[in-house]
Amino acid sequence: MIATESLSKRFPRVTALDRLSVDVGPGVTGLVGANGAGKSTLIKILLGLSPATEGRAEVLGLDVATKGGAIRERVGYMPEHDCLPPDVSATEFVVHMARMSGLPPTAARERTADTLRHVGLYEERYRPIGGYSTGMKQRVKLAQALVHDPQLVLLDEPTNGLDPVGRDEMLGLIRRIHTDFGISVLVTSHLLGELERTCDHVVVIDGGKLLRSSSTTDFTQITTTLAIEVTDTDEHPDGTRAVREALHARGVSVEDGSGLPGAGHVLLLTAQGEETYDVVRDVIADLGLGLVRMEQRRHHISEVFTSTDEREQRKEAVGHGG
Amino acid sequence: MAVEHSTGTAAPAPGDQTRIHNIGYRKYDGPRLGRAYARRSLYSQSLRGSYGLGRSVKSKVLPMLLFVVMCVPAAIMVAVAVATKANALPVDYTRYAIIMQAVISLYVASQAPQSVSRDLRFKTVPLYFSRPIETADYVRAKFAALASALFILTAGPLLLLYVGALLAKLDFADQTKGFAQGLVSVALLSLLFAGIGLVIASFTPRRGFGIAAVIAVLTITYGAVSTLQAIADAQGSGDAVPWIGLFSPITIIDGVQSAFLGATSASPSGVGPSTAEGVVYVVVALGLIAASYGLLMRRYKKVGL
């Protein structure tokens, strides 16, 4: 979908992108970086709106330097900032934007109605945008990026300013753009944690340099962490401690689930294979405790980073992650 | 087989017709009409917007009102000409816009910011440039739309005068010639005023500032120029009058049309520029239009994304 080759962008005083080479395939790809890491600059170059200082980039197999117009016809873009006029309705606005993408008038109307429904705007679409909530505005912004049925959408911080529920809904919608609509997605965020749940692939950049590019499954399936929570009984007033000690005796190392909800009552252990589950079951049964929950926890991508050599550097890059 | 298939998938259960079905996402494989079509769409949307069409009722009031105000004097003149069986219209076609310049200025001041400041203020510009159109397409569409809107505003009453003159059975050849000269003059005026208005408006995202700035530029220059011309004329330095006229948009139009379009100058002396001076006027007028276009291009290169 996107391929860049030692792509650099230098401004008189800053280097926004520094020999960035990255390959993005179909699916949902997260582009992570702190503010000022070069995410927006990259998007501008990919849309063919800003020439690269050196290196080259291709979007959908088209060179950004020469085929900008053709790329923009097949790509949707949702900016980070507010971009909606308050005095027109979502329908009128999206119809206009569909025509600006080259859709004939009738098709523009049909696609607008369809797209607004898909992003979850119903009756309110006939009201002026000025009265919408932030969540609804984000949906309109998303709709205008999807209305011309692009092959790829570039979403710049789509969850910005949303409350946790709105965030989850937006992330679900982004997931559906790929699974249901068949459109590939490049989504930027400075929050690594939320991309982990949504993306197939994550690209991390910092200071215009590529830190890491790999699929989310690579990040998180190296090991499986189990979270266990047990009840207390008269015999074992602190059931959690009893389990920890018993597991320890059988050679399974256990960590406290500090930082998690219910910390102190949650034990984390690394499952080496099927046997670990059996060991846990037996230990708890022997102690006569009730098992409240035993669940697989995926690693947060940030945890993967912090376990690498360049711990400090990456921690900085994804400072807001997790 | 066929029956089974249809009941299995599509046929709704009885009494179920009112439910809204999620028909899933549909791909679009129809035509994509590209850049030129997008530019035309932006042009027509902006032109309609200049008269408040496709916008709220509130935004229709001012442009429509100004259009009516432009046309009313023409209608009265026609009525008088027809009723009194006059052998000429009370004003020349070329003079009409000069008389009504305050209304034209007001229209430019209200609609130029409407056309471009809104896109800047609400940061809609990046959405345009993330689509097939380029900077030049946006600038041309907006420029052409406002110029067309101004042409409708200024040529409308001329058409009224012309039709009225023919109804009053005035000389056909004379009237047609005058009408044509008037149209050329207001076409130039539309381009010039649209350019100046858009350049000023494109530098401020605040509509109020835009309106004030456009009115200020158009009226202050005219006030200053006509005052200086009057002083120059009164002090006997009439030679300077045409040169002073180059410093305000409306007197430039006046100069061009009195040199080449058979108009009598509206300047205090009533004497228009000579043919040689008229050439300078034309050059300045076209230069200003080109400069406005260039400035807009530069401005939008920066605004971009």
Automatic annotation (TrEMBL), chain A:
GO terms for MF: ATP binding; ATP hydrolysis activity
CDD domains in UniProt: ABC_DR_subfamily_A
Record domain ABC transporter: where: 2-232
Signal peptide: none
Keywords: ATP-binding, Nucleotide-binding, Transport
Similarity comment text for this entry: Belongs to the ABC transporter superfamily.
Name of the protein in its database record: ABC transporter ATP-binding protein
Organism: Streptomyces tuirus
